[in-house]
């Protein structure tokens, strides 16, 4: 059994940094089509800063998932400009509030995903169908809740990640009504929402960090 503890949370964040770096151009290209072309740059900058803070031995204790996620939140808020910095920062901050324990079971993963999604919506006020990262988070929450009925922590995580990927893909035909892409109106249809894509990548990295 894989344990979703502070070491897992660190692996999750280091893998996210590597994945965001690798996807920098892909995310930026999506944002070039329907935004201002900086989402890949924003994510790469933010998660590179997270990885370098994790490399710094002097940085605060990280004995719980919550401590790691709090460090992620403050780093993203201070290094990522634009909409996504405060949104992801709030997501990780709210997730930190419910992960103050040695390791997470299935219900613990549900709580993490629910709190992160709630952080995004409390900050950005978007609803499913607005063509934002909420279109990845909302199905992730539903899938996690369903999987928790009998599923272990990794199964819950895997269900959330799969649903986020499907949710991101489903943003392609949507017309954006929140964020910069909404300025394009109907012309925002035909491109996947960059933030929904980065959300799916983050949850995929969480699964990969669990070795599953
Ligand atoms: P900016 O739009 O300021 O340049 P980014 O390009 O980094 O910031 O992030 C854009 C992403 O932020 C969008 O693809 C969308 O997923 C997300 N986003 C924008 N506004 C909102 C909102 N109100 N609620 C949820 N997500 C949003
Ligand atoms: Mg942008
Ligand atoms: Mg911008």
Automatic annotation (TrEMBL):
One MF term in the entry's GO annotations: kinase activity
InterPro entries, sorted: DhaK_L_YcgS (IPR012737), DhaL_dom (IPR004007), DhaL_dom_sf (IPR036117), Dihydroxyacetone_Kinase (IPR050861)
UniProt-listed SUPFAM superfamilies: DhaL-like
Coiled-coil segments on the chain, per record: none
Listed PROSITE patterns: DHAL
TM stretches of this protein: none
Keywords, comma-separated and alphabetical: Kinase, Transferase
DhaL domain ranges (all copies): 7-208
Protein name, entry field: Dihydroxyacetone kinase subunit DhaL
Organism: Isoptericola chiayiensis
Gene, per the UniProt record: dhaL
